[in-house]
Write a structure and sequence with these properties.
Length: 413
């Protein structure tokens, strides 16, 4: 009998799981995505993906790890300096990880993941209601749209909710999670300097708690991500979004600011009206619904502060973990939704809690009143570096661990 898996959302986590399960005997995958194949809200920006995602993918979906590496530039360091270019710390990733991460465009990341997921993804599908049946299967009713005028229904043995930070599936089945706001706002932009600025791998400038990150992408553009402190939970102040404020936000008070920072500030200030703003926040992790027939992954399970660039990274780690688990269970004849969802929770809970907490704690330098010098110096002390090692090297994902949890679940079920 075929085990029917539904995936809601073909974003980072959902498309990667679909890719990891492609052509697996005994499993039928249907992924429902509300956008079109090449639409995405982040598409015009860049991101850095941590070495831990590549390590996890290499163990579980190696073709994806290779595709990400060959379509990106390596991300090789953490470094922070003051607005006048005085370096506060420099940490090569090779001292805390077994490989570099990657710097990539969102549009490229989505293209790779969605191509790898293949024909199992149905675009322009918007699931409206999710119902857990008495036999434990899950029925999904999708809204009709121009492309599919008839309302559609699917019935699955297991549903994977990968529908992002504002997961409608999680809200329907487990209640809307309460966000915990950090008190930091963020904007992102791309700058075309025509290759003139001496910037390649990650730069971070701090002016008080105001942080600007910049790195070059493979197509030559510069990705810029700016943080500014706000009152936790309050909206982004209107004046932050104005060009005259942004032009000097990262250099004011500095006698001789880094010329690159001045140039960048002028460039993103000129785009002030188009900038995309967000507020850093996290939610309480949750990996399964009450029935055990639904698994939450990626931001739907554990949206976290973006300070360390671990959101998409952890979405990929989740996808790698779930693919390994489903493959192991299929091989052992153990495809049973409640057992799979509790095993997934056991595999991921401690790991996710650790990364979520580290991302929150590492944001101390971005808060009102933070001292950039002492705050950043502590990012090079031995305890912090040990945490980075744990972050980048200990994904908790090896075959024997998956087997261990599967067997543990078998003995209690
Ligand atoms: C300012 C900022 C900077 C960031 N920088 C980084 C970074 O550098 N590195 C990093 O690793 N992470 C970064 N992140 C985090 C990253 O964006 C997310 O953690 C990541 O996209 C989560 O992946 P996901 O698959 O869970 O969700 P998403 O990638 O958001 O995918 C969800 C998918 O579900 C679809 N969908 C939603 N609702 C429905 C529905 N009802 N039905 C069908 N489909 C639906 C969406 O269209 C989308 O395709 C950053 C986030 C922010 C806010």
């Amino acid at each position: 009998m075929v085990f029917r898996i539904g995936i809601i959302g073909a974003g980072v986590a959902g498309a990667a799981v679909a890719a990891g399960l492609r052509d697996l005997p005994g499993i039928q995958v249907t992924c429902l995505e509300r956008t079109g194949q090449s639409d995405h809200v982040h598409a015009g920006n860049g991101l850095n993906v941590g070495p831990n995602a590549l390590l996890a993918l290499e163990r579980s979906i190696p073709a994806l790890a290779e595709a990400l590496q060959s379509s990106s530039l390596p991300w090789t360091r953490w470094q922070a300096c003051l607005a006048d270019a005085t370096i506060i710390y420099h940490t090569p990733l090779e001292s805390v990880a077994d490989r570099p991460g990657v710097r990539i465009r969102w549009s490229e990341l989505y293209r790779i993941l969605r191509e790898a997921a293949g024909p199992d993804v149905h675009y322009h599908q918007h699931p409206a209601t999710i119902q857990i049946e008495t036999d434990g299967t899950v029925t999904v009713h999708a809204l009709s749209d121009a492309d599919t005028p008839e309302p559609r229904h699917w019935n699955f043995d297991l549903l994977i909710a990968a529908d992002g930070r504002y997961s409608e599936v999680r809200a329907q089945l487990s209640g809307e999670p309460v966000p915990r706001h950090l008190g930091v706002s963020n904007f992102r932009a791309l700058v075309d300097d025509r290759g003139q600025l001496d910037i390649d791998d990650m730069e971070q400038w701090f002016n008080g708690p105001r942080r600007l990150i910049c790195f070059r992408l493979r197509d030559g553009l510069l990705y810029v991500s700016g943080n500014l402190p706000i009152e936790a939970g309050a909206p982004v102040p209107e004046h932050y979004t104005r060009a005259d404020f942004l032009r000097s936000a990262y250099t004011e008070g500095t006698a001789a600011p880094d010329a690159r920072l001045v140039h960048l500030s002028q460039s993103f200030a000129a785009q002030a009206e188009q900038l995309h703003w967000a507020r850093a926040q996290e939610i309480e992790p949750l990996f399964r619904d009450r029935s055990g027939s639904v698994i939450y992954i990626g931001d739907a399970a554990h949206a976290m502060c973006p300070t360390l660039g671990q959101g998409a990274t952890m979405a990929l780690e989740d996808a790698a973990a779930l693919s390994l688990l489903l493959r192991a269970a299929a091989g052992a004849g153990g495809l049973q939704a409640a057992r799979l969802s509790s095993t997934f929770q056991a595999l991921r809970d401690n790991r996710v809690q650790f990364v979520k907490q580290l991302s929150w704690d590492a944001s101390d330098t971005l808060l009102f009143g933070a001292d950039p010098w002492s705050g950043n110096l502590s990012k090079s002390d031995p305890q912090y570096l040990e945490k980075l090692r744990q972050l980048y090297l200990h994904t908790g994902l090896d075959g024997s661990l998956v087997e261990y949890w599967l067997q543990a679940e078998e003995s209690v079920s």
